[in-house]
């Protein structure tokens, strides 16, 4: 399990098990944020790879 | 950043939406919840103006009544926002922000050209945008809540955090600003949580992700600059 998978698993649990409503809401939204970070990391890395692989500059 | 929420609701006690929003802010700092009293004949202009001056982000919060705010907000505007204060010699609101939190019982899909309501909320709220312009304020994108009573439990939970950010996050409009806000909130929770070790690890992972994204962003902008040459 990599770090982000571990983080997501922890946040899922916190978003269900925290005592305060506001805390459950916070961890749910934080999980959304971590998922969005993952998506953006993959997209940005892909864009870097794609732009670096530029035959017109060969 | 200090935020003033001016709540205009003639039946505030009966409003589940307003109660929900108020509860969402219980732990938020630098927020003033200011209810406009519908029973008083006139407002104390000096006191209201002093309150405005003490804050950086001003929020008008109300349910949509006939495509506008309840009358008490207009009365407050007419009495408190006099010429000198707003755009005469004082320009007391210049450089502040104006945000609108508006709720409606009608569905979101109606607020579009050709829809049941014909107009978007941004169009209907235009007088506030004009006011912000005249006052030299920055107008924030309106925060709208459609059919609160029909929201699912998870939608309500997401609403809590979105609303907290609209009220307290100076940079809520960009992802980087939202990342930093979550980090700050998590740091505050760390202090008095039995899970502090776990939360520290989560915080570190989120910070690492943010820093990686920043680095990729710089790399991309360098590659793009290079492509332009």
Helices and strands, with pairings:
The complex is a heterodimer of chains A (58) and B (229).
Chain A: H1 3-17, H2 21-52
Chain B: E1 3-7, H1 16-24, E2 31-35, H2 45-53, E3 57-63, H3 71-80, H4 83-86, E4 97-104, H5 121-124, H6 126-135, E5 138-139, E6 143-146, H7 153-168, H8 175-191, H9 196-228
Parallel strand pairs in B: 1-2, 1-3, 3-4, 4-5, 4-6
Helix pairs in contact in B: 8-9
Rg of chain B, Cα atoms, Å: 20 Å
Give the percentage of residues in beta strands of chain A: under 5%
Which ranges of chain B are low-confidence, i.e. pLDDT below 50, for 5 or more consecutive residues? Answer: none
Summarize the amount of helix of chain B as a percent range. Answer: 40-55%
In brief:
The complex is a heterodimer of chains A (58) and B (229). With 58 residues, chain A is mostly helical. Chain A has helices at residues 3-17, 21-52.
Please tag this protein with its features.
A: 58 residues, B: alpha/beta, Rossmann fold, 6 strands, Flavodoxin_fold (chain B)
Structure description:
The complex is a heterodimer of chains A (58) and B (229). Chain A is mainly α. Chain A has one domain. Chain A is 81% helix and 0% strand. Chain A has two helices and no strands. The radius of gyration of chain A is 17 Å and the shape is elongated. Chain A starts with a helix and ends in a 6-residue tail after the last helix. In chain B, strands 1, 2, 3, 4, 5 and 6 form a six-stranded parallel beta sheet that branches. Chain B is α/β, with parallel strands linked by helices. Helix content of chain B is 49%, strand content 14%. The longest helix of chain B has 33 residues, at 196-228. In chain B, α1 (16-24) links the parallel β1 and β2 (31-35). Chains A and B meet through α1 and α2 of A and α7, α8 and α9 of B. Chain B: InterPro entries: Flavodoxin_fold, Flavoprotein-like_sf, KefG/KefF. Chain B: This is Flavodoxin family protein. Chain B: GO terms for molecular function: electron transfer activity; FMN binding; NAD(P)H dehydrogenase (quinone) activity.
């Amino acid at each position: 399990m990599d770090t982000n998978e571990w983080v997501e698993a922890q946040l899922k649990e916190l978003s269900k098990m925290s005592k305060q409503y506001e805390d459950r809401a916070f961890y749910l939204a934080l999980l959304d944020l971590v998922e969005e970070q993952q998506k953006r990391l993959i997209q940005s890395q892909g864009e870097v790879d794609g732009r670096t692989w530029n035959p017109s500059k060969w | 950043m200090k935020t003033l929420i001016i709540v205009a609701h003639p039946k505030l006690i009966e409003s589940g939406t307003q109660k929900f929003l108020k509860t969402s802010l219980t732990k938020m700092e630098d927020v003033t919840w200011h209810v406009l009293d519908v029973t008083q004949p006139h407002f104390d202009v000096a006191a209201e103006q002093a309150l405005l001056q003490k804050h950086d982000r001003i929020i008008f919060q109300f349910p949509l009544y006939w495509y506008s705010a309840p009358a008490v907000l207009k009365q407050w505007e007419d009495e408190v926002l006099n010429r000198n204060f707003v755009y005469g010699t004082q320009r007391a609101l210049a450089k502040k922000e104006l945000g609108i939190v508006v709720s409606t019982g009608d569905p979101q899909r109606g607020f579009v050209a050709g829809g049941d309501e014909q107009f978007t909320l941004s169009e209907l709220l235009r007088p506030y945008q004009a006011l912000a312009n005249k006052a030299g304020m920055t107008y924030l994108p309106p925060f709208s809540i459609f059919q609160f009573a029909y929201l699912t439990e998870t939608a309500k939970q997401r609403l809590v955090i979105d609303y907290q950010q609209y009220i307290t996050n100076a940079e809520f409009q960009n992802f980087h600003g939202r990342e930093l806000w979550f980090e700050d909130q998590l740091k505050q929770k760390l202090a008095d949580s039995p899970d502090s070790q776990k939360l520290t690890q989560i915080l570190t992972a989120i910070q690492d992700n943010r820093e990686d994204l920043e680095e990729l962003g710089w790399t991309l902008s360098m590659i793009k600059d290079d492509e332009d040459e």
